[in-house]
Amino acid sequence: MNTAVKITAFAAVLAASFGTAYGVGVGVDPVNAEPAAHGEHASSEQPKGEEKAEDEGAGEARPGGLQVSEGGYTFDLGTPRIAADRETDLRFTIRDDQGGKLTSYTREHGKDLHLILASRDLTTYRHLHPELAADGTWSTPVKLPEAGDYCLFADFTPGGDAKDPGNLTLGTDLAVSGAYRPSAVPAPSRTTTVDGYTVTLAGELRPGAAEQLRLKVSKDGREVTDLQPYLGSYGHLVALRSGDLGYLHVHPGGEPGDGRTKPGPEVSFHAAAPSAGTYRLFLDFQHKGEVRTAAFTVRAGEPAGGASDATPKESGGAGESGESGGSGGSGESGDGHEH
Questions:
Q1: Cβ(227)–Cβ(236) under 8 Å?
Q2: How many angstroms separate the CA atoms of 128 and 141, rounded?
Q3: Alpha carbon separation from 99 to 74, 169, 174, 204, 247 (Å, rounded)
Q4: Are 53 and 171 in contact (CB under 8 A)?
Q5: Where are any strands of DSSP class E within 178-325?
Q6: What is the Cα–Cα distance from 92 to 88, expressed in whole angstroms?
Q7: Would you call 138 helix, strand, or coil by DSSP?
Q8: By C-alpha distance, which of 10, 331, 334, 6 is closest to 171?
């Protein structure tokens, strides 16, 4: 991703199905699945004089073919399985085509690498920022509330003298052991709450055509008009497709300080779905020094939401570091936040 506003769109083709149970403890084999795929980047900002971004194909969601290895780089997860409800250091490396560890990265949106973690039933979500050791090993503490099959997405751009394929998003699987009970994807909703904030969604997600999604933030019945920049934007939006976890990452059509983008209450995006289907949308926003995540379920091609409210498990407040994640309405210590 460049410093300009960008849309990242990519689809995943994941062969593994849900299991019905995971063994207690960490001595369980990870689920074998073809890792997630990633598509190409496109600008989310509409050119002047155009009414819709799709007129010029802006924001078009094109399924990629990227997986655990892409452009000469491989996502090597050193901890492919962990135990539920136990804090564990998640460790991984990005390896080049010679097997060496990548140690130089081009910083994008304030970070060298962004790590997104989601359960396959889309009820748990994290956007983490791990730390890089001198030897090229990334690590971040993580504590996941429930057992099951999870996916990890590493979003980065190689730097220095490394082979430069541009921005990459590589995907792999994480098995979390313990008593496993899959949850249904929450019902479609236009409104969700997180830590006392109400976020309302308007607009449609359509397959193959960019449309405007508008998310309005309020608290205690009052519109929030002083959202704070987080990694260069007033909001970040990630969509994951139910079933195969096809992935769409969108940035808003404006930047703080550009003279036209207001700090709330509304954050707008132009986005297109890679296909028809049910998606979970995760909006990250910062207010009063904390980053929070609001989640919605939408169906591509249908009105964005239904009549009911939803308070998803992954919605949570931020810790002191300003990085969020978490479940049940509060962030977890040590879990990072999003891109």
A1: no
A2: 9
A3: 8, 18, 21, 43, 27
A4: no
A5: 191-194, 197-203, 211-219, 222-223, 236-241, 247-250, 266-271, 278-287, 290-299, 309-310
A6: 13
A7: strand
A8: 10
Question: Which own/partner pairs from 256-265 qualify as long-range (CB within 8 Å, at least 24 positions apart)?
Answer: 256/229, 256/232, 261/234, 262/225, 263/225, 263/226, 263/227, 263/228, 263/229, 263/234, 264/217, 264/223, 264/224, 264/225, 264/226, 264/227, 264/234, 265/216, 265/217, 265/218, 265/223, 265/224, 265/225, 265/227
Q: For residue 153, which of 134, 136, 166, 172 has the smallest C-alpha distance?
A: 172
**Cβ neighbours around 328 below 10 Å, total:** 12
Over the chain (339 residues), the average pLDDT of each successive run of 10 is: 37 32 32 34 37 38 58 95 96 96 91 92 93 97 94 90 81 91 88 96 90 95 95 87 80 85 93 89 95 95 50 38 38 35
CB 110 within 8 A of CB 96: no
Q: Tell me if 10 sits within 8 A of 37, measured CB to CB.
A: yes
Residue whose C-alpha is closest to residue 262's, from 291, 237, 235, 226: 226
The dihedral formed by the CA atoms of 270, 325, 119 and 67, expressed in degrees to the nearest 10: 60
Tokens 């607009």, located at residue: 203
